[in-house]
Specification:
Helices cover about 80% and strands about 0% of the residues. It has about 220 residues and is mainly α.
Length: about 220
């Protein structure tokens, strides 16, 4: 029986941390993706194509490259890393917050592109009609735009959550693989396979597949 060879305390810790990182990062990424995609869907300025290319860059870069750039930026010698350490009196590198940051960066392109497509499909005549009836910007967004982009919003969140849950390369670069502190399920699987502990590797693999399957099934049920 597979359960007989599982160290249950060691099994649950990476899962709990992965869910914690994925939930927080996916919410932040969704908020950023909605705000920026909404703005970019209507904005017209020089350099827009260049900015959008920058937004999408983490999607095509190797995760280790993204991790290296974040390490340079957030490390103790980087200006942002120095600022964070000055504000919080502690470095962010090799903490679970670093895993959250890595997940936000790599998941953002998927969320942004999904929401951009959603906003581009909105019938702007409906929004104009709302304005002509005296609706505020928030009321128009809440009662007209948001219901129209709801399927895209759900899809964007799923993509962001799934990408964060499976993030490996960038997380390993800036958060490391510290058991009980920064070790997520993907890094735990890697270490288990490398150490020949196939029982734990299979257990974590089955767990992450089940989590992803259940979330997709639940979300599809709510959008149908």
């Amino acid at each position: 029986m597979i359960g007989a060879g599982i160290d249950w305390p060691a099994f649950w810790t990476p899962i709990r941390l992965s869910l914690q990182v994925a939930l927080l990062s996916s919410v932040v990424t969704l908020l950023l993706g909605v705000l920026i995609a909404k703005w970019m869907s209507k904005a017209k300025f020089k350099g827009k194509l260049l900015l959008e290319t920058l937004f999408m860059l983490p999607l095509v870069l190797p995760p280790t490259v993204v991790g290296f750039l974040l390490l340079v930026l957030l490390g103790r010698r980087g200006w942002m890393g120095k600022l964070i350490e000055w504000v919080f009196h502690a470095p962010v590198i090799f903490t679970w917050w670093a895993a959250v940051i890595a997940s936000i960066v790599v998941a953002f392109p998927l969320v942004y592109q999904t929401m951009k497509v959603g906003f581009s499909g909105v019938d702007h005549h409906l929004e104009d009609a709302g304005r002509s009836m005296g609706g505020s910007s928030w009321q128009i967004f809440r009662y007209i735009t948001l219901p129209l982009v709801w399927p895209s919003l759900i899809s964007a969140y799923i993509l962001g959550f799934a990408r964060a849950l499976g993030e490996f390369g960038a997380t390993l670069m800036i958060a490391g693989n510290i058991p009980g502190v920064t070790q997520t399920v993907p890094t735990a699987i890697y270490v288990a396979v490398d150490g020949g502990n196939m029982t734990m590797a299979w257990a974590w693999t089955i767990a992450i597949v089940l989590i992803s399957f259940l979330m997709l099934a639940l979300t599809r049920r709510k959008t149908e």
